[in-house]
Automatic annotation (TrEMBL):
The keyword Coiled coil applies. It holds the Pfam family BRO1. Belongs to the RHPN family. Residues 645-681 have a biased composition (Low complexity). The gene is LOC115221098. Residues 106-498 form the BRO1 domain. Residues 645-691 are annotated as: Disordered. This is Rhophilin-2-B isoform X1. Transmembrane segments: none annotated. Residues 21-95 form the REM-1 domain. GO terms for biological process: negative regulation of stress fiber assembly; signal transduction. Keywords: Coiled coil. Residues 512-590 form the PDZ domain. It comes from the Eukaryota.
Length: 726
C-alpha cells in the first residue's frame, strides 16, 4: 500500500450531501451508506494503530512502551469489532432478494468497493503544459466532465444503466491512460479504494488499480442485479442466469488481464473463488428454471432433475473447497463458507430425493428400459464392497425398487439434517429466515416420505446408496464485459490524434515557420499523410529550407487554423489559400526515426506544396490521387534528371552550410544526417559520406538543445516529487 497526501473529505462521511441523499433513498443504498461509514472508521483506527506502532518502536521509555501496548490492544479490539460488523453487512443477503423469493433459496451478492473523491484538475493541467506545451486551463471543462463521470460511478444504479455508467467511465480511463500515462511515470493522482469485504483502505497512483476496481464493481453490480430478479418468472430467472454469468466474466477478466492487486478482494485466488461461486449460482438458477412449472410426470424427467441437482451440489463443493484455502478462509465471511456448504448438502439431498421419487411414485417405474437409464445415473462401478453388493438389488422389480427408494430417501434425510445443523451453527445464517424455511420444509417432506416406507416388522438392512452422476449437458460460460458496446469520445481529443500526441511520444516545443513564396520554388516543401499532415520533403535553397523546416515535422497549425485533425486535402486547401505568405506551426518528433524522403513518383498520399514539378499525378494503393500543386513557373530540368541529381543538390547545399536534409535520431539519442536516395548503391556511398557531415543548422541546434533541457528538467522534477511522496 502506497502512502501519500490524500484528498480531504467534503463531509463527515467523505461524501457530498447530494450523494448521501441518493444513497438513503433505497434499502440497498442505506446499507451501502453503513458500509461506507464502517470503512471510514476502520481507516481511522488503522491510522491510529500505525501511529501507535511507530511510537512503540521509536521510544526507549519502558513506561511509555507499556502505555502504548495497552492502546494498541484497544485499537486491535476496535478494528476487530468493526470488521465483524462489516462481515454482518456482507451477510445481509435478504435485502438484495426479490419480494417474491420468500420460498426460494437466497443467492449471495457482493458489495461494491467504496472509493474517495479524486481531483484530476491540477495534475492533468500541469502535464498538458509540460508535455504537450499547451494551456492546461483550456481543458478544465473536460477535466470536470471526467470527474463528474467518476462521481456518478460511486453510487451506480442497481440496473443495467449502472453497469453502463461503470463501463463508460472505464473506457474514459483507457483514453486517459494512453494520453497521460507512460511506463515509469505517473500523474501523482492517488486512487483510494476500500476492500469490499474487510473495509481496509488501499491507495495507489497506478491507473490500472482504478480500472481494476471499476471492473470489480461491474462484477459486484451484476451479482446484485441477479439477486433481485424474480426467479418465479421465466424472464426473471433467465436474467439471473445471464447476470451471474456476466459477473463471472468480469472477475475472470480481472484474473486474465490484471495482476499484483494490493487489496485481497482482487487477488487471483480470491477472484478464482468468486468465479466458481458465480457459476454455481448460475447453475442453481438453471435448476430453478427446470422446475419453474413443476416436474412433468415420468421416471426420466425426475432423473434429469436429480442429475442437475447433483451438478449444482458439486459446483458449490468446488467453491467451498477454494474457500478453505488458508489465505481465503481468514478473509471471506464465515456466513459465505457456511452457506456454500449448506447449499452443497442441500442440493445433494435433493438429487437423492428425486431419484427416490422416480423409483417409487412414477407410473412408468416398472419400465425396464427406463430403469436401465436410471441405473446409468448411479455410480455403481466403484470398487467398494457396499456398491458391489448393491448390484444384487438393482431396481428391476417392485421389492428391489422399494429397497432402493427407501435408501435414497434416508440419504436425503441425513444430508438435510447435516445442512440444518451447519445452518444453525452460523450466527449470520440463522438471521436468514428465507433459507432456514426452505431447508426445514424440504427436510420435513423427505422425512415424511421415508417414514411412510417404514414398517414395524421390516428388519431389512438399508443399503449404502451410490453417488449420482451429475448432468453434463448444461455448462456455464463466462461472459466478458462488452467494452465496445459503450464506446466513448476521447475528452482530450483536441490535443491531437492519440497515436501521435500521447504520453509515450516526445517532440520539440511548437515553433512558428514564416514562409514567403518564391518565384522558382514556391514555398519549397511537400506534405503527406493525414491527422496531422507531415512534411515529406524540402527543396534545397527554397524558403522552407532557409526557414529551418525539416522533413518529418508535423504541421499542427496553418495560419490560425488548428490542423492536428486535418485531412490531407484540407491541409492542401489551406496552403493554397494562403497566398504569397504562409505561417506554419510545427513540431519535430524526438526519440524515433523520421521517415526518409520519398521520390515524388513513389509518394503515397503526398503533395508537393509550392515546389515546381511537371503536372503529373499517380494513384496509390488506396486509389487516392496524389495532388501536385504547381507554381506559376516550371522547373527547367526534367523529372528524371531532377530525381537523379538529388544527391548532387544536397552535396552542394551542404557545402554552402544549408543543411536541409532529413534527420533521424539513432538509438543513443544522437542525430545523424543522411539523404534518402533512389537505389541501394547510392545509399552505401551516402553512409560513407555521412560520417563527415556532423554539422547542423543553427535552428535545429537551438531546438534540439532547448527541448532536451526542458525534458531533462521535467524528468528531474518528476523523480524529486516521487521521492518526496515516498
Amino acid at each position: 500500500m502506497e502512502s501519500g497526501n490524500l484528498p480531504t473529505n467534503s463531509s463527515n462521511d467523505g461524501k457530498p450531501r447530494d450523494l448521501v441523499d441518493v444513497l438513503n433513498q433505497t434499502a440497498r443504498g442505506r446499507l451501502q451508506t453503513r458500509r461506507s461509514k464502517l470503512n471510514d472508521e476502520i481507516d481511522k483506527e488503522l491510522r491510529l494503530r500505525a501511529g501507535a506502532e511507530n511510537l512503540f518502536r521509536a521510544t526507549g521509555n519502558k513506561r511509555l512502551k507499556e502505555l502504548v501496548a495497552v492502546e494498541l490492544s484497544f485499537f486491535n479490539s476496535n478494528i476487530q469489532l468493526l470488521k465483524e460488523e462489516l462481515c454482518e453487512l456482507n451477510s445481509s443477503v435478504n435485502i438484495y432478494q426479490h419480494a417474491n423469493s420468500i420460498d426460494s433459496v437466497p443467492m449471495v451478492p457482493l458489495g461494491l468497493k467504496e472509493t474517495r473523491e479524486v481531483d484530476f484538475t491540477v495534475p492533468i493541467q500541469d502535464f498538458i503544459l509540460e508535455h504537450f506545451n499547451d494551456d492546461g486551463t483550456k481543458y478544465t471543462p473536460y477535466i470536470n466532465q471526467l470527474m463528474e463521470f467518476r462521481q456518478n460511478i460511486r453510487v451506480p444504479q442497481r440496473s443495467e444503466s449502472g453497469v453502463i455508467q461503470l463501463l463508460t467511465y472505464y473506457n474514459h480511463l483507457s483514453y486517459l491512460e494512453k494520453r497521460f500515462y507512460v511506463a515509469g511515470r505517473n500523474l501523482g493522482i492517488y486512487f483510494h479504494w476500500y476492500d469490499s469485504l474487510t473495509g481496509v483502505p488501499y491507495y495507489q497512483r497506478a491507473i490500472s488499480f482504478e480500472k481494476g476496481s471499476i471492473l470489480f464493481n461491474v462484477g459486484a453490480l451484476y451479482t446484485q442485479i441477479a439477486c433481485k430478479q424474480d426467479r418465479k418468472e421465466l424472464s426473471g430467472v433467465n436474467a439471473a442466469i445471464e447476470n451471474f454469468q456476466k459477473a463471472a466474466g468480469a472477475f475472470q477478466y480481472l484474473v486474465t488481464y490484471f495482476s499484483n492487486a494490493p487489496s485481497m478482494d482482487m487477488q487471483r485466488i480470491m477472484l478464482h473463488m468468486l468465479v466458481k461461486l458465480m457459476k454455481a449460482q448460475s447453475l442453481e438458477c438453471i435448476y430453478e428454471k427446470m422446475n419453474l412449472d413443476g416436474i412433468s410426470p415420468g421416471l426420466l424427467n425426475y432423473v434429469k432433475v436429480a442429475k442437475m441437482a447433483a451438478k449444482v451440489s458439486i459446483n458449490y463443493t468446488n467453491a467451498h473447497d477454494m474457500i478453505l484455502v488458508d489465505t481465503v478462509k481468514q478473509y471471506v465471511p464465515f456466513s459465505w463458507t457456511s452457506m456454500m456448504l449448506v447449499k452443497s448438502q442441500f442440493y445433494k439431498a435433493l438429487a437423492h430425493y428425486y431419484i427416490a421419487l422416480a423409483l417409487m411414485e412414477q407410473d412408468d417405474s416398472d419400465d425396464v428400459g427406463k430403469l436401465q437409464e436410471l441405473v446409468k445415473v448411479l455410480d455403481i462401478t466403484s470398487s467398494s464392497p457396499d456398491f458391489q453388493d448393491m448390484a444384487t438389488v438393482l431396481p428391476f422389480n417392485s421389492e428391489k425398487r422399494k429397497i432402493q427408494g427407501k435408501a435414497h430417501y434416508r440419504e436425503s434425510v441425513v444430508l438435510l439434517e447435516e445442512a440444518l445443523n451447519t445452518h444453525d451453527l452460523c450466527r449470520q445464517l440463522r438471521k436468514i429466515d428465507l433459507f432456514q424455511g426452505v431447508l426445514r420444509e424440504t427436510y420435513e417432506r423427505a422425512l415424511k416420505k421415508f417414514e411412510n416406507l417404514e414398517e414395524e416388522d421390516d428388519f431389512t438392512d438399508l443399503i449404502k446408496v451410490p453417488e449420482i452422476i451429475p448432468e453434463s449437458q448444461y455448462n456455464v460460460e463466462d461472459i466478458y464485459p462488452e467494452f465496445s458496446d459503450h464506446s466513448v469520445t476521447d475528452l482530450f481529443q483536441s490535443l491531437g490524434p492519440l497515436d501521435i500526441f500521447s504520453a509515450n511520444k516526445l517532440w520539440t516545443a511548437p515553433r512558428d515557420i514564416h514562409l514567403k513564396k518564391d518565384s522558382q520554388y514556391g514555398f519549397g516543401f511537400s506534405i503527406r499523410g493525414d491527422c496531422p499532415v507531415k512534411i515529406n520533403s524540402i527543396e534545397p535553397e527554397s524558403p522552407a529550407a532557409e526557414s529551418g523546416l525539416k522533413a518529418g515535422d508535423y504541421i499542427i497549425a496553418i495560419g490560425e487554423e488548428d490542423t492536428k485533425w486535418s485531412m490531407h486535402d484540407e491541409a492542401v486547401k489551406l496552403v493554397r489559400g494562403a497566398g504569397e505568405s504562409l505561417t506554419l506551426k510545427v513540431v519535430t518528433p524526438m526519440g524515433e526515426n523520421i521517415p526518409e524522403e520519398s521520390p515524388y513518383y513513389e509518394r503515397k498520399r503526398c503533395s508537393s506544396v509550392g515546389c515546381v514539378y511537371p503536372a503529373k499525378s499517380t494513384v496509390d494503393d488506396d486509389n487516392t490521387t496524389d495532388t501536385i500543386l504547381k507554381n506559376q513557373s516550371q522547373r527547367h530540368n526534367s523529372v528524371h534528371n531532377g530525381v537523379k541529381n538529388i544527391s548532387n543538390h544536397i552535396d552542394n547545399d551542404h557545402s554552402n552550410n544549408n543543411n536541409n536534409n532529413i534527420n533521424t535520431s539513432n538509438t543513443n539519442g544522437d542525430l545523424t544526417t543522411h539523404t534518402a536516395t533512389t537505389n541501394n548503391n547510392s545509399s552505401k556511398d551516402f553512409n560513407r559520406r555521412s560520417k563527415t557531415r556532423n554539422k547542423f543548422s543553427a535552428t535545429w541546434q537551438f531546438i534540439r538543445k532547448n527541448s532536451s533541457k526542458v525534458f531533462n528538467k521535467f524528468e528531474k522534477k518528476s523523480k524529486q516529487d516521487d521521492l518526496a511522496s515516498r
